[in-house]
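Hey,
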Amino acid sequence: MSSVLEVKELARSFGGISAVDGVTFSVDQAEIVGIIGPNGSGKSTLFNLLTGVHKADRGHVMLFGQDVTRKPSHKIARAGLSRTFQLPALFVNMSVRHNLWAAAVQGDWHGAPSMAEDVLELLDLADVAEALAGSLSGGQQRLLEMGRVLMQAPRIVLLDEVAAGVHPRLRQTILKAIRELRAKDTTFLIIEHDLELTQDICDRMIVMDAGKIVAEGTFDEITHDPQVMEAYLGVPVE
């Protein structure tokens, strides 16, 4: 497999605090990589750097061989990388279907209606397609947020705690959608606190603490790593 995303010595500080401190990793095509770590470890800041929400102080982000380190968010999205946020940013007074259409404004507008129907089916939202986004449950809103990302036809999807607080049935819908999209060569990076979910879906794990990567490997490898036990699971290293 070839690397579709390469991150080299990426760093960003805020007021003297190193939120991301020299992070380096790569992701292969159609790989599902989980990013875990305690609150404040730099996970969401890393996503913000990858997607152009924040600008890096140093380091590089290579997307399909192209340096996108300091490009604006919309250009990075057009290059094939899109993400969800912890809090869904929906048009609450618009229908579910129209929320999906709106997400395609900068892409294939003419193909948006057909693509929206596919997304509605994939995420089991067809039954609420005409409902206002603001009337959905929290879990359904997270599904719709994911659907809006998929309307941009990304080749790499970053999911920021997309299953947090979601009903088990909706969680299975999310996992099913990820697997189906991976089968079509979509790549995923997933921030998630639920270790059971990451064990179920991820090929590889990256563990962050204090802005750095402290471990990387399969689920079994990282859960037996002493630094992970201390930093993430709260078990002191003897």
